[in-house]
Amino acid sequence: MMIPVILGISLIIFTILALTPGDPAQMILGENASLKDIEILREEMGLNEHFLIRYVKYIGNVLRFNFGNSYRTGLPVISEILTRFPNTLALAFFGIGLSVVIGVPIGIASAVKQYSIFDTVSLGVALIMTSIPAFWLGLMLLLVFSLNLGWFPAIGITNWKGFILPIVTLAIGSMAVMIRMTRSTMLEVIREDYIRTARAKGTSEGRIIRYHALRNALLPIITIIGINFGLQMGGAMICETVFSIPGMGSLMITSVRQKDIPMVMASVLFVAIAISLINLLIDILYATIDPRIKSQYEKAKR
To answer: 248 and which of 88, 188, 204, 291 could share a cystine (Cβ 3.0–4.6 Å)?
Structure first.
């Protein structure tokens, strides 16, 4: 399903860009350009053709790994994207990684110690973290740890310290979701009959949690990880703006404002492909974790 999904996304974005007001040719030549010069440039760029014809030609070029040249700079869009995309991908990857490393253990502990003080405090903290907007949190972290304490750089990513505050900003909201989802899923699992049977056999509580409960609770958690990765890619764009990081977010905003269609299309396609690959990886993990899903795939092949 990756191919039709990516094609559908590309068609929707291309249609929106084609129907929104603004003439790329006039934006390139400037407001003082004559109508004749604008018309000549439109003809050279193929803008006079129907947008569906232009879309088919664009997809044909993409299949040959030709994403076109930027209307703004005149350079191949792929070169600028390849310099910025790793920053956005790193922010999303480490943001979701931090939220999993901290959120999942807290969620497990909350489920095991249900209605305890730890459970109440963790749920309250998770609710607060969910309510905090990413841009406000980023600004507060900048004020405290960059301007007042001077521990981290205020803008840019000249070294590894530049990634710390943006990653924390991204991870906070996702961490809250991880805590709540892990807790609710673990509570359902630890009430199952096979958990009671394991306890009746004298299996230690730690082994029950690790090898019986957690393994069966992983599928919903992995689903949330995949969904949050897509949200992190979008949230990374906000962090890039707040922390002045050269990533896909600032590139997309600039390109949309100037109606740089090749740059916008290539940026959206790169993000869509990255999210689709993560979803594909999650589907593969389903079959690895749950043998029942793997058997369904094998039956379908037969």
So the answer is: 88
Going from the C-alpha of 270 to that of each of 67, 110, 232, 266, the distances in angstroms are: 11, 38, 15, 6
Structural domain span for residue 171? 83-258
**Amino acid at position 190, single letter:** I
Backbone φ, ψ for residue 30 (5° rounding):
100, 170
198 and 236 both lie in a single domain: yes
| Residue at 217 is within a domain | yes
Dihedral sign (CA 161, 166, 167, 169): positive
For 248-276, give one letter per residue: b (16+ CB within 10 A) or e: bbbbbeebbebbbbbbbbbbbbbbbebbb
The predicted pLDDT at position 30 comes to 67
Q: Are residues 166 and 251 in the same domain?
A: yes
- Residue 60 has what pLDDT? 87
> Structure tokens of 233?
């890619």
Q: Are residues 116 and 237 in the same domain?
A: yes
| Same domain, yes or no: 151 and 98 | yes
**pLDDT tens-place string over residues 67-112:** 888 877 778 888 888 888 888 888 888 888 888 899 888 988 888 8
Domain end, chosen from 63, 92, 109, is at 63
In a domain, 129, yes or no: yes
Is the residue at 72 inside a domain?
Answer: no
CA distance readout (Å), 31 to 25, 27, 35, 195, 257: 10, 7, 10, 72, 15
Q: Mark the ranges of the chain whose per-residue pLDDT is less than 70.
A: 26, 28-31, 156, 234-235, 290-302
